[in-house]
Design brief:
Number of strands of chain A: 10
Largest sheet of chain A: 7 strands, mixed
Pfam family, one (chains A, B, C, D): NAD_binding_2
Organism (chains A, B, C, D): Agarivorans gilvus
Strand content of chain A: 5-15%
Oligomer: homotetramer
CATH architecture of the largest domain in chain A: 3-Layer(aba) Sandwich
Number of helices of chain A: 14
InterPro entries (chains A, B, C, D): 3-OH-isobutyrate_DH-rel_CS (IPR002204), 6-PGluconate_DH-like_C_sf (IPR008927), 6PGD_dom2 (IPR013328), 6PGDH_NADP-bd (IPR006115), HIBADH-like_NADP-bd (IPR029154), HIBADH-related (IPR015815), HIBADH-related_NP60_sf (IPR051265), NAD(P)-bd_dom_sf (IPR036291)
CATH topology of the largest domain in chain A: Rossmann fold
CATH class of the largest domain in chain A: Alpha Beta
Radius of gyration of chain A: 20 Å
Strand order of the largest sheet of chain A: 3-2-1-4-5-6-9
Order of helices and strands of chain A: EHEHEHEHHEHEEHEEHEHHHHHH
Distance between the termini of chain A: 56 Å
Keywords (chains A, B, C, D): NAD, Oxidoreductase
Shape of chain A: elongated
Largest interface: A-B, 64 and 64 residues
Protein name (chains A, B, C, D): 3-hydroxyisobutyrate dehydrogenase
Helix content of chain A: 55-70%
Chain lengths: 286, 286, 286, 286
Amino acid sequence: MTRIGFLGLGIMGKAMALNLVKAGFEVTVWNRNPSKCADLVAQGAKQADSPKELAANCDISFAMVADPEAALAICLGPDGVAAGIGEGRGYVDMSTVDDSTSQAIAQAITEAGGRFLEAPVSGTKKPAEDGTLVILAAGDKSLYDDALPAFEVMGKMSPYLGEVGQGAKMKLVVNMIMGGMLSIFSEGMALGLKSGLDAQQLSDVLDAGAMANPMFKVKGPMLLAEDYSTSFPLKHMQKDLRLALALGDKLDLALPTAAITNEAFKQARKAGYADEDIAAVYKTVK
Amino acid sequence: MTRIGFLGLGIMGKAMALNLVKAGFEVTVWNRNPSKCADLVAQGAKQADSPKELAANCDISFAMVADPEAALAICLGPDGVAAGIGEGRGYVDMSTVDDSTSQAIAQAITEAGGRFLEAPVSGTKKPAEDGTLVILAAGDKSLYDDALPAFEVMGKMSPYLGEVGQGAKMKLVVNMIMGGMLSIFSEGMALGLKSGLDAQQLSDVLDAGAMANPMFKVKGPMLLAEDYSTSFPLKHMQKDLRLALALGDKLDLALPTAAITNEAFKQARKAGYADEDIAAVYKTVK
Amino acid sequence: MTRIGFLGLGIMGKAMALNLVKAGFEVTVWNRNPSKCADLVAQGAKQADSPKELAANCDISFAMVADPEAALAICLGPDGVAAGIGEGRGYVDMSTVDDSTSQAIAQAITEAGGRFLEAPVSGTKKPAEDGTLVILAAGDKSLYDDALPAFEVMGKMSPYLGEVGQGAKMKLVVNMIMGGMLSIFSEGMALGLKSGLDAQQLSDVLDAGAMANPMFKVKGPMLLAEDYSTSFPLKHMQKDLRLALALGDKLDLALPTAAITNEAFKQARKAGYADEDIAAVYKTVK
Amino acid sequence: MTRIGFLGLGIMGKAMALNLVKAGFEVTVWNRNPSKCADLVAQGAKQADSPKELAANCDISFAMVADPEAALAICLGPDGVAAGIGEGRGYVDMSTVDDSTSQAIAQAITEAGGRFLEAPVSGTKKPAEDGTLVILAAGDKSLYDDALPAFEVMGKMSPYLGEVGQGAKMKLVVNMIMGGMLSIFSEGMALGLKSGLDAQQLSDVLDAGAMANPMFKVKGPMLLAEDYSTSFPLKHMQKDLRLALALGDKLDLALPTAAITNEAFKQARKAGYADEDIAAVYKTVK
């Protein structure tokens, strides 16, 4: 039976680790603030004193932390994952990090004899709790095969996307499309309302047609209620748009709709909505 | 029992009229080329010799013709609908026409004592056959109430949107959002493929997330197969984008994402794809 | 000696007519508010009681009025230019009007036996006073030849551009380029100032390079002083951008930079700067 | 009398160094390929064997090399400028480099006890020969004062712009405006020609108005002659647009016209025009 480690018990990580425990895996957890481990331990998890100790005692260790700095911090250094992983064990970083961070972690783990996967996820709190995340895995194929039973507990799909970097690229493409859809949706809602159309009827018509999608169903009422409580911060979307455009630049690809969407989100950031939900881009349009 | 007339038996109109016959309505049909009436007559419909005769003998007459010129032609003139409609009968034009055409028809019908609704539809051949069109009705409210049983046979929803013009505006808003979604989808597919992502995996990931929608499911495989057989001609989408931008201009609303989407479709038109499906916008991006 | 008529003595027209008087032409003037004729009469001009009378008594009549409505009003109707022009006399409309207005006037004059030129100008008050307008003449070539001595008094150049409509198109192209230059100039000034560059040094560097032009020299200090007193109203520039884009649409030409410039000016209009100078587009950028 | 060093005798550097010699300065030169020094030596210059030797024997050393790699190579390493510069002598790098390169060079020179200025130039071969470059100097103010007599020989203006980095920023802002102007100019020329206007008349009208500028005068005939022989490579302009947008992103500034201009240049790069002149952006518009 595979021994699973889980590093990082924030909103997302805690829900994901709990699902693994409930599914019957032997799970060891670690968190920078150790008190957050209590709930998991109460459910049957073990607790490690450091990322190094956790990595040394688990077959596969997963991490879900807030940002590139935290991702580097738990991996490198004397108490880090790389110091404990040893020959053949696996490390799966599910945090959303930039390309160079992912490469640095991959290199540290590989040089220490371990196997590495990047596996950023699409989905927020609710899908994490429901085990319906979309997991974008890329890196060591044998580790992917070993991690698949755990992925299947945490997510509803977890395709293997190729070498390290392809997971991050998939996420950028998906988020770029999300940003563009939100931008044209905002313009459409603004045009409809200024034209005297009824907001509910407009939403209903959209929902009855070929463009019906869960995001419009969630964001539509938010725009209308002027409720921008954050599930995906606007500044993170703008960063992803910038990175997607940079990727297009490197690949000699003009992306005018994405470029103008990026400017729309920059305009919203400039107007002070950086920490509100992505739906707040509507405020600069209407 | 309401006597129903139906003018225009093209791909859409024939399917819609057939559904009315099957639902038990007493239906009279007319088509510019009368031979197209045969199938409907075989199913129990009567055939009229002119739009005037049809309008004079039905409580509500529906029209579904190809363009503004045809819509005007069947309504005005000595053999037109307006000449036959008389006091209190209803005329519902379901063709997609521009604002001024709609106003001209509304005026002719009203001056002849009739009641008028514009009711452009969202949806193509398949929904017409299945009776699942989205019908965007606006104009005379009493006629709307009378026509509702027929709308319910032809469509899955048919909200009443207000005065004449509001149906056309709803359609412009919806199509503008469709165009923007297709443009960012094309850019995302191009970026993904150039990045070395697998097309099927990219489609699957999109389909698993919050942006999943029927249009991406239909158009995605078309892009990948380079199959642009037309269900919605690209030039018509570009025209709708132009009209939506003109509406925004009148209402003092900047719509930069729509404006760039319009340029993308113009670029595609310039490249010679005017008569291919809207999905052909991808060819100028990739 | 050619007898010259001049209709419309606003800021522009008065300066132009005065230059013709000073150059020794026999000039007859008319203005809707006749009291504005006094200064010209004091300088030696005659005064007519109606456009019809003026046209009937001059070899070539020029008009410079505010908008399409005024241009139509002085030409059509029982007291209009067309009623008086008769066989072979010439009418030169220097007002800025849309295509269909120009065509309507051309037709009325031609049917009355007269010859017609459209001749919109590039340049505002100062060039009108200095006789350095750029005159964009199109229409009847023999009338162009006859009007040339007068054009040479009013302008520094007056090329013959072809059939009626080509003058208006030239003006749209020129103004579209002007709008685009102002938009990128505004973005550059905003970027420079936010970067901590000195505004005067930035202006000096631009003025020393290959992009140095009179407009930047005039508008630069306006932006910096937040002085948007109007020499060219922003809403008129936005209208010209819209018309230039419509022309591109008709000709199957994608114009993305112009389209985004148009959105920038629409954003400025929406923000309430419609009647300020075109330089006010900067306020929505900075 | 100040002893001047000059590193890099390409097209630009050779012309600049020659002007310094002719102006009576005592000039020592170095070039990676030493044979290129012969002409300068024939005019009275001395020749150094290495950047280190040159820096050690001159009060102020200037460099004008092709790219960041060359700029780093001549400064760092055992034979580099930093190894020879010693206490108080000055180094002025006039090459166009990115921000981090400039900072690395500044740090190496400063740590070696020297004084540093970045001084990228605006202008190409002809202004270099004529001594009419625009020099964008930033860094050590005392060195700027000492270098001014040499700057005045090489350029027509050389403002002091502040700390290291401000010279590069000024150049980005200026080039961003240049790119935007070229993009709208291309669209305007394309629209004019498709409208049936005469290219020469369009150029003449532009040249007579408030937007007249040397760049349009040079690039206009190039577009029309389809002659894109390179004076400023298109790929370098696109790189500058990308960097300007990145600067705007850092400063929370939306720059939609620049963003769309960048996409236009990317489209041209994608079409294979990367090494042609910036005017080749026209080929993707027309």
